[in-house]
Amino acid sequence: MFGLFKKNKVLPTFAPLVTDMHSHILPLVDDGSKSLEESLEVMEIMKTTGFQQVRLTPHFQHPRFPNQADDILKRYQNFCGEVEANKGSRDLPTMCGISGEFRVDDGFQGYVDSNQLLTFHFADPKRGSDKGLLLIEFSLSQRRMGLDETVFNRQMEGYDIIIAHPERYPYFDSHSSMLEQFKEQGVYFQVNILSLDGFYGEVAQRRAFEYIENGWVEFLGTDMHNVMYATALKHASTNKKIIKLLETTEFENKNLAK
Description:
By secondary structure, this protein is of the alpha/beta class. The protein has 9 helices and 9 strands.
């Protein structure tokens, strides 16, 4: 009888998202995790904040991280086995695949030409293109010529494009004609959760909320790299404005769940 008066269980902040679709926790391939143990610690923290699934998206960036798709896929398979063998009693999110975060730089066309664009899909097979969702990023310092053409060409080839953390590019703002053009073309935007908590500074924080208010943002991602980022994610999970946002705004992350 007393069970009738129990309060409903409060879910962790990021539980409505279900899936984190942007992370760098495959060890020793980019500027993310440096070890299996660090990845396990990070994933455990991610689970406590509400994520049930996590997708790995290592950098493909010339010349800093010249990763190759075949090698990354092999490393991912090995990593899955190592996680299972070493997680012990840790409660971890499920890994739901690996793709990539591709920098539009001097090496990008090479990945296109050699068919190395690792993508992912919506859970509903009737949604999205056959070639899948392609996560791309731009330079964090200066705008590269031909970004609009590059994005359009990939769309014409059959990819759905997600632009990672547009709030972090100093050459865009909430009135950017290029960002408006991208939205008119059906390009998806993914904002970093840590941007919403001020991790990248006040300008990125303001833009992140403005882009969401504009109705431009379909996905949120952790852009998880290491324990410092995981600690920042825990802090973000207590941010009242972020909690309210997730209570009032639906994002596409949950539609990636499998």
